[in-house]
TrEMBL record, chains A, B:
Name by which UniProt lists this protein: Acid phosphatase 1
Family annotation (Gene3D superfamilies): HAD superfamily/HAD-like
InterPro entries in the record: Acid_phosphat_B-like, Acid_phosphatase_pln, APS1/VSP, HAD-like_sf, HAD_sf
One Pfam family per UniProt: Acid_phosphat_B
Database matches in PANTHER family: ACID PHOSPHATASE-LIKE PROTEIN
Family named by the database record: Belongs to the APS1/VSP family.
Function (record text): May function as somatic storage protein during early seedling development.
Taxonomy of the source species: Eukaryota, Viridiplantae, Streptophyta, Embryophyta, Tracheophyta
Protein's UniProt keywords contain Ribonucleoprotein: no
Keywords: Glycoprotein, Signal, Storage protein
CDD domains the UniProt entry points to: HAD_VSP (cd07535)
Signal peptide: 1-21
Molecular function (Gene Ontology), one example: nutrient reservoir activity
Length: 250, 250
């Protein structure tokens, strides 16, 4: 680049006022997000910038409904699945049965979209009774991108563990739902036992991953829709965040 | 919800074929992303699902150019800034001068958009010579959302540290650029010294944050556009990922 080009550069740098051309956003609370900022709110959720949040901002409920029901959610999930698969294929497996991958269940292996459609896509606060009734139905469909990844991992020789925030009393319904939606041959399904109740998800899930590591498993990959599925300690070599703008679990 | 509603539910669950209505995406390499998946690729970058990548996929260069130049980037940054600010205001400062916030510089405090506009928004591989020439100009404008946050943090009483992957020989140009674009009163500016060369950014930055902690600083917040600004060890209480779909630093 010659000096003339550099000068043009400098001029464009000094006139980069377009970055300021919109008045600065005021965001006093998540309840007052202007609707044209909903996509940015969603990004903040997916990157864990949003921190803890209780419900989808009212101004963004329509946006979330459209996102979840349309092509964007499916495409975003597909890309996560393909990137997970590309990583999995790059792993050199030891082949002793200790090459592990950990999956969360809700909004990861199974989609509760039919349930959340019914209750307005995150607008309502989480209702445990109503969700428990839905779980009992064992009717959640597989998330297609995760289903495809799950099967490929087993073909590649990974040992698959399921680690969910659901509780032991939901074991039957959960296993039934997994089998009905086509999942099989997982090594172990972890649910919250009595001693796990009340723990933050990231603590409970870190403890279970640490158990696996102490048994000699190498956790290469971990798939989940919540940052609390993926962080903490005993984290996987690669963690994959599946989109979920409907709810937040600490 | 009565049993009739549950039945409707079940039916909608069993017919959730729309999740499968598009053929599954094939993504053999980042070089072959269908252009209608570029937004999903960007999300994968922002959530750290993409792992290491060398350049923007050719099919997504136009998408990235439009994203960076238009409203979306500015809005996404604004929301990160406002969420950072909301967190900062929630921190109870001890007030002993050890309440710290760490900022990265490039694409965090300063925007190199004029430079990347010139070289085609990430399509070209990173060219150190050309970027060094740009740095020497000290002409990068402030990222407005970070500028606003930076000033608010100082008003609130945080001690601000700057931690950049730039090298010591760029100290003068970097300080000049920061001052010209309006930043002032940072406590310390860390640049890579001779012993830091060749280290992955996450190692170098973790080491520097650990130094601060050993000096008694409490790192409440950390702002950066790369996951390697934020992860590793001695991580902040809250980390804020600023968007950057143009390049990746391991």
């Amino acid at each position: 680049m010659d000096s003339g080009a550099w000068l043009l550069f400098l001029l464009s740098a000094s006139t980069i006022g377009h970055l300021r051309s919109e008045p600065m956003l005021r965001l006093p609370s998540e309840k007052e997000i202007p609707s044209d900022y909903c996509d940015s709110w969603r990004l903040a959720v997916e990157t864990n910038n949003a921190g803890a949040w209780e419900r989808v901002p009212p101004s963004c409920v329509g946006f979330v409904a459209e996102y979840m029901s349309g092509k964007r959610y499916r495409r975003d999930c597909d890309v996560v699945g393909k990137l997970s698969s590309a990583f999995a294929r790059s792993v050199e497996l030891v082949g002793d049965g200790r090459d592990a991958w950990v999956f969360d269940i809700d909004e990861t292996l199974l989609s509760n979209l039919p349930y959340y459609q019914e209750i307005g896509f995150g607008f309502e606060l989480f209702n445990e009774t109503s969700f428990d009734n839905w779980v009992k139905l064992a009717a959640a469909p597989a998330l297609p991108s995760s289903f495809s990844l799950y099967n490929e991992l087993q073909e590649l020789g990974f040992t698959v563990f399921l680690l969910t925030g659901r509780s032991e009393y939901q074991r039957n319904a959960t296993e039934t739902n997994l089998l009905l939606s086509g999942y099989k041959n997982w090594e172990r399904l972890f649910l919250r036992g009595s001693s796990d109740q009340g723990k933050p998800a990231s603590t409970y899930k870190s403890e279970k991953r640490a158990e696996l590591e102490s048994e000699g498993y190498r956790i290469h990959g971990n798939s989940g829709d919540q940052w609390s599925d993926l962080g903490g300690y005993a984290v996987a070599a690669r963690s994959f965040k599946i989109p979920n703008p409907m709810y937040y679990i600490p």
